[in-house]
Amino acid sequence: INAEYGVDSCKEQGVIHRPYSSARVTQRYDTGACCDFYFGFSTVGLEDPLAVYSKLERSAREEVLANGGSVSHHHGIGKVRSEFLEDTISPVGKEALLAVKRGLDPQNIFGSGNLIGVVGPTGAIKSKL
């Protein structure tokens, strides 16, 4: 990811000071590597720093996906990155996750709505908790 791209994106969001970013290779494989990226910026003068962070993070994740990367390595998608599920897992993969969920948690007690919705005969099944 182009570091200047991040600087320009921050400026567009009103970030005054130069952001901090770094990366490291955490694992390597015959087929590629896992790179962790770290990012931070000063919130001075920002009315809604969380909204700015969300926009910048989303933009960075889109850039990673556009360049053939994935949004998560061994941690999975999770709640924070759930909007990227369709971009990172095939329909067959999603069906496999649903089958496991239905098989191990037919009452939909654990992690209800965290990642993929479980649908029953009357629609979406809500957690019993």
- Strand order in space, largest sheet: 1-2
Query: In whole angstroms, how far apart are the ends?
Result: 42 Å
Q: Shape from CA axes? A: globular
Number of strands: 4
Number of DSSP helical runs? 4
Q: What's the helix-strand series?
A: HEEHHHEE
Give the integer mean of the pLDDT values.
81
Strand content: 15-25%
The biggest sheet amounts to:
2 strands, antiparallel
Tell me the radius of gyration: 18 Å
Helix proportion range: 25-40%
Extract low-pLDDT stretches: none
Structural class: alpha+beta
What does it look like?
By secondary structure, the chain is an alpha+beta fold. Helices cover 36% and strands 18% of the residues. It is built from four helices and four strands; from the N terminus they run H-E-E-H-H-H-E-E. The protein has a two-stranded antiparallel sheet with strand order 1-2. A two-stranded antiparallel sheet has the order 3-4. Strand 3 (119-120) and strand 4 (123-124) form a beta hairpin. The longest helix is centred in the middle third of the chain and has 18 residues, at 49-66. It is globular, with a radius of gyration of 18 Å.
Question: What layout of secondary structure does this protein have?
Answer:
Elements: H1 3-12, E1 20-29, E2 32-40, H2 49-66, H3 85-88, H4 91-104, E3 119-120, E4 123-124
Antiparallel strand pairs: 1-2, 3-4
